Amino acid sequence: MTATSFRASTPEKASRAGARHQRSRGSRVGAILRASVLIVIALAYISPLVFMVLTSFKTQADATAIPPSFLPENFTLQAYEEIFAAAGGAPVLRWFANSLLAASAHAILVVAVSTLAAYPLARMEFRGRGIVMGTIVVTLLVPPTILIIPSFLVVSELGWLNTLWAIIIPTAAGAFGVFFMRQFFVSLPRELEDAAAIDGANRWQIFTRIILPLAKPALATLAMLAFLTNWNDFLWPVYVLFSPELQTLPAGLATLQSSNAVRYDLLMAGATIASVPVLVLFVFLQRFIIEGVARSGVKG
Amino acid sequence: MAPYLILFGAFVVLPVVLGGWMSLHRWDYTLPNKPFVGLENYFQLFDPTSSSSQVFWGAMGATGIFTAGSVPLLLVLPLAVALLMRRTFPGRNLMRAIYFAPYVLGVAVVAVLWRFLLDNNIGVVNHMLGVIGLPDDTAWTTSVPAAWVTLIGVTVWWTLGFNAVIYLAALQDIPAELYEAARVDGASGWQQFLNVTLPGLRPIFAFIVVITLIASANMFGQSYLMTQGGPGRETRTAIYQITETGLRGFRMGEASAMSYVLTAILLLASAIVFLILREKKGSHR
Question: Which residues contact B3 (CB under 8 A, 6 or more apart)?
Fold first, then answer.
C-alpha cells in the first residue's frame, strides 16, 4: 500500500520540476507498465478457475496425472458424457434443472414481494410504518445463524422438506431486497409522482406506469443478486433436500465429492456446469452486479 | 406489502421466537414428547464437565481461529486491491471483474476446486511447491495448522473481490479536492493515505468489519467440503456443529440453545465494533 500511494504521487513531483512533456510520456509508460503487472497478477488470480475448466476436458487418468499438465493432453468430453448419463447415481442434468428452476422462481418472488413492500415504506404514510421499517432493519443485523434450526421445523410443518419449495420461498423473506428497493425509491424525485397525481392518476397507476419503468435497472440488479445467492446457496439445500434427484447443483456436488472413489474429472465437470450460468450472467451484466454490491455497501 | 409481511412473519419472526421456545425444551424432532426443561440446555452449554459444552466450545474455538485469521486479511488485502484500481488505466474494468469473479461462484464450486488443487498427492499446489524446492507433501486438508491455512486462504481468494468493490466505491466518494489540498500542503503519498484516505473510509469501515466478521463467524461450506471438520473435530465450526446436532442428530432444543449463544456473541461483537469505530471518529475530530 505504501509503495502504491508513493508511486502515485511521483508524477506530480515531476511536474513541479517543470518537465511537462517528459512527464506525460514517462507517466504513460509507467501506467502501461503498472497495468501490465497488475493484469499478470490478475490472470494468476483467476488461473485456478481456468484450470478447473481445462481439467473437465481431460481423461480420468490425465486429471490426476503426476506431474499435472495445464492443458488437456487428450481432449475429451468423456467426463461430461458420464455425468449427463447420470453415472454413479449423480443426475447432474436434473440438478441443473432444479437449480435453474429454484433460483429463477426465487428471484422473481424476491423482486415481486420486495418491490411491493418497499414502495409503501418509501413513499406512503400509514400507521405502523416506523415499526415495520424498524423491525426490518433490525433483522438485517441479526445473523442468519439463529434461523436455521427453527426454519427447518417451519418448513417441515408446511410439508416442504425434500421439495424445491424449501429452496424457493423461505429465503425470500430476507430484508435485503426490501431495503435495497426502498433505497432506490427514496432516491427518486417526488415531483414525478406529484405531477402524475395532479393529472389524476391514483397511487397504483403512479406505481405501475411511472415508478416501475424507472426502476427497471434496480429491479434487474436485485433479480440477479437474488438469483446468484440462491443458485450458490449451500448449507440449506444440504440439510432440507434428501433425495438424490432433488438436489440442487451445490448440494449435489457435495454428494459427488463424498462418494467412495473421488473422480476429479467428473467433479471438475460438475463444478464447471455449476459455474457457467453465473459466470455468463456475470460477464454480460458485471457492471450491474458489482454496482449493486458496491451500492448496498455504501448506502446500507 | 402484505405478501412480504406474510413471508417475513413465517420465515423470520416466527423462527426467531420458535428457536427461543425450542431451546427451553428437550426438543427431539423424532420423538413425540418434547418436555419443557427450562434453561437446562443453556446450563449444559456452560457446564464445563458436560460433553455438549466441550463439543460446543470446541466448535466455537474453531470458529474463533478462523475468524481471527480471516477477518484481518479480508480487511487489508481488499483495500490494497481497491487502492491499486482507484486510478483509471487500460484494463481496469477487466481487472475489477477478475478479482470479483470467484465471489459469483458458490462455496461448493470453490471448495471442490481447491480440494482438488490442494490434494495431498495429485494436487497442483504441492507439485508446484516441489518444483520450486519447498516441501511438497503438506497435508493441506487433513492436518493442522495446514488446514487452517487452507480454509483461510481459500476464503480470502473467494471473497476478496466483494470487500474490494465496496472499498473502491467508498474511495471514489472521497472528494478529489481533499487530495489536492493535501498536496498543496506538501503531504507525501503516505501522509495522504493516512490523513485523507483512511478518514474518508471510516464511515464504510465499520460496515465492512461487521459484515466480514459475521460472514467469517458463519463459515460452514469450506469446512464441510474441504476438511470435513477434521482432522478430528479441529476445523468443525460452530454452525457446522449446530446443524449436525440439530439437523442430523435432531436434538433441536440443544442446537437452538447453541445458536442463541452464538448469535448473542455475534451481536455483542458487532456492537463493540460499532462503538470502537465511532469513538475513534469522535476523538479524531
Answer: A112, A113, A116, A117
The predicted-structure confidence for B49-98, as pLDDT tens digits, reads as follows 888 899 999 999 999 999 999 999 999 999 999 998 887 777 788 888 89
Q: How confident is the model at residue A56 (pLDDT cuts 50, 70, 90)?
A: very high
Q: What percent of chain A has pLDDT over 70?
A: 88
The angle formed by the CA atoms of residues A258, A251 and B159, to the nearest 5 degrees, is 100
The predicted model scores a pTM of 0.88
| Cross-chain Cβ contact A46/B101 below 8 Å | yes
Helix axes A92-123, A249-258, angle to 10 degrees: 140
| Amino acid of residue B48 | P
Which of B4, B197, B270 is the closest to A178 by Cβ? B4
Report if residue B17 sits inside a domain: no
Q: Which structural domain, as residue segments, surrounds residue B270? A: 61-248+257-284
Cβ contact (<8 Å) for A150 and B22?
yes
Give per-residue pLDDT as tens, B183-208. Answer: 898 888 889 998 899 988 988 888 89
- Domain harbouring B90, CATH code: 1.10.3720.10
| CATH fit for domain A93-299, picks 1.10.472.10, 1.10.3720.10, 1.10.10.10, 3.30.460.10 | 1.10.3720.10
The SS3 assignment for B251 reads strand
Number of domains in chain B: 1
How many whole angstroms separate alpha carbon B10 and alpha carbon B243?
20
- Do A173 and B10 touch, CB atoms closer than 8 A? yes
Confirm or reject contact between A295 and chain B (CB < 8 A): yes
Comparing CB atoms, the residue among B165, B170, B259 nearest residue A293 is B165
Q: Give percent of chain B above pLDDT 90.
A: 54
Compute the half-sphere exposure of residue A191: CA atoms within 13 Å on the CB side of its CA: 1
